[in-house]
Amino acid sequence: MKPNPGMEKHQHPVKSFTKQSDLKDHQRVHTEEKPYHCSVCGKSFTNRSNLKKHQRIHTTEKPYHCPQCGKSFALQGHLKKHQRVHTGEKPHHCSDCGTSFNQQSDLKIHQRIHTGEKPYHCSDCGKSFKRQSHLKLHQRIHTGEKPYHCSDCGTSFNRQSNLKTHQRIHTGDKPYYCSECGKGFTTQSHFKTHQRVHTGEKPYQCSDCGRSFTIQSNLKLHQRIHTGEKPHHCSYCEKSFIIQSNLRNHERIHTGEKPYYCSDCGKCCTTQGDFKKHQCIVKLKFQEIP
């Protein structure tokens, strides 16, 4: 009797075990039986060894130590992954671009660049992300959660990186220095924008008239000339303005505020522009006096 080709196709290789206890543990993969329960959180496992590994989460036991730096781990597998930091071993390679990674999970995340896969979706706005951590950061926009607090002034931030940047205001730390003029900056983005002063680069171009700008915010302000948008409204009259600073200057007509004071003659001016003009006149008058 000839064997059924269909049966051969669906047959799986028989797995063998040296101990009957190991066979029983393995069979639970198929039966989904999990007789070993954690007394702390109730989580269940197919075998006792996995339960013991899990219980280290609660006991904080970390029996596996790195001989290079002394860092400890609850699982031997985690220690092996960590040791690749010291050895430089990157056994997981991307078949698309050849980039290598020390963890398979990092390779999977990287491959989403090639596949375009974004498996983590925001339930509030539908936006998708490659990484779960990026989704969590994004969700703080909707929840308003700001878990990182400045110990100096109490300002809160949704990202730790934003807190670190903010703290430079208090410390005076300016790690980004311009090699042309020596000016220092607290953020890399401000440094890059400043460099355009020296290079003359204006990457933001108006699609209506072709005028170019060094920063995107200036392009947006300029485009209001073409769109006619005037989002800044006077609270005293119906006049509107393209730029907020122009609104502030205008409202001083209503309030009578004149914040710019001339120390030479005592005259006060409404705007900085008027004040500068006045200073030029005063300077010329002093020059005329013999």
Automatic annotation (TrEMBL):
PROSITE patterns: ZINC_FINGER_C2H2_1, ZINC_FINGER_C2H2_2. It comes from the Eukaryota. Keywords: Metal-binding, Repeat, Zinc, Zinc-finger. SUPFAM superfamilies: beta-beta-alpha zinc fingers. Pfam families: zf-C2H2. Residues 1-31 are annotated as: Disordered. Coiled coil: none annotated. Residues 15-35, 36-63, 64-91, 92-119, 120-147, 148-175, 176-203, 204-231, 232-259 form the C2H2-type domain. Residues 21-31 have a biased composition (Basic and acidic residues). SMART domains: ZnF_C2H2. The keyword Lipid metabolism does not apply. InterPro entries: C2H2-ZF_Transcription_Reg, Znf_C2H2_sf, Znf_C2H2_type. One of its GO terms (molecular function) is zinc ion binding. One of its GO terms (cellular component) is nucleus. This is C2H2-type domain-containing protein. It comes from Astyanax mexicanus (Blind cave fish).
